[in-house]
Design goal:
eight-stranded parallel beta barrel, about 10% strand, single chain, TIM Barrel, alpha/beta, 10 strands, two-stranded antiparallel sheet
Amino acid sequence: MKNYTTQMDAARQGILTAQMKDVLSQERISEYDLLEGIANGKIVIPANKNHKNIVGKGIGQGLTTKVNVNLGVSEDCCDMDMELKKVEISLALKADSIMDLSTFGDTGGFRRKVVEMSPVMTGTVPVYDAVAKFGKKVKDISVDDFFDVVISHADDGIDFLTIHAGLNRTSVERIKNNPRLLHVVSRGGSILLEWMEENDKENPFYEHFDRLLDICREYDITLSLGDGLRPGCLKDATDAPQIQELIILGELTKKAWERDVQVMIEGPGHVPLNEVCTNMQLEKKLCHGAPFYVLGPVVTDVAPGYDHITSAIGGALAASSGADFLCYVTPAEHLRLPDLDDIKEGIIATRIAAHAADIAKGIPGAIDWDNQMSQARRDLDWKKMLSLAMDPEKAAAYRNSSKPIDEEVCTMCGDLCAVKRSKKILES
């Protein structure tokens, strides 16, 4: 059997890996199209060689839109048992990916537990852990410190790493020459910006990008090129710093592909509804069709407590316009660490957005689920309607909380149920 280093390398050799077979069993895509998509960088399968229980999932062209869940402990809320419960809930609610964004405590132990219990792809942001692990001032973290943390995450089986390599000195000049209302809202981006400015040096992940690729290639880690200059408010959307970073990410993408390293691009952020499609087109053009991973986008700044809705609106439009991977946003966004209920609300809202987009994109089979629900409604088959619901538990709770006199209908219309009446007339 031929040897390969990464999923991209295997695809370029025509080798069908175990993870590719997983994807073929989940998606309506041909073996040829899957191999071609991975080989040319338009599809990725994040799957670290050390993540032994992973079930491969594909992200990109011709595939269903995937949903990521962020979780992890902070100094103010350091309850690892609670965060592990969030992992369990996320898996039960069919999230496709989990990102551990822990910034305090035994981050390594928690990270390894997440990988061990999760058959879905897992991601991290190593610069967070560099701050937590070494306990140094940001300016005193060495280049080797940063890369030691990357290697430890790789050893632990992390499938994709968010690295803000596009926030280089050129990007920093753009933000200085084009002042923003909210400056830099990316946590990883702000850490690297501080390190660069206080040390008067280039971003270590940009300057030593080949060193990063060596690690990704060895472990078959997908590089998730982070958007350190993503807009944090509508006023800053689609500005010069954001686009400058995107151009650099496109250049880095080609370098990674030359080494058979898989890449996806992270995107905004806060974006007005009328600019969402433009942002998707810009990424696909400037980053050569690499899969696009977006946070939201949040389409209005005035709905704290409801940002799972603002992001679902943006996410549906983004994914229908080309985004491949949606990072969930919870009602707690901008306010606090999410609790278990927030996690559920965020996942369901984002799954709705992803599914709606898949229908709009014409993903084969996407609308079949909706057609089954419509048939159950036509038949007034409540048991089947509830079983087909994206959240059967909540749907059943609503149904059971208000029982109609006639069990065939609901208490909204009762005897005036249009479905029952028209069916009786038209099918008798």
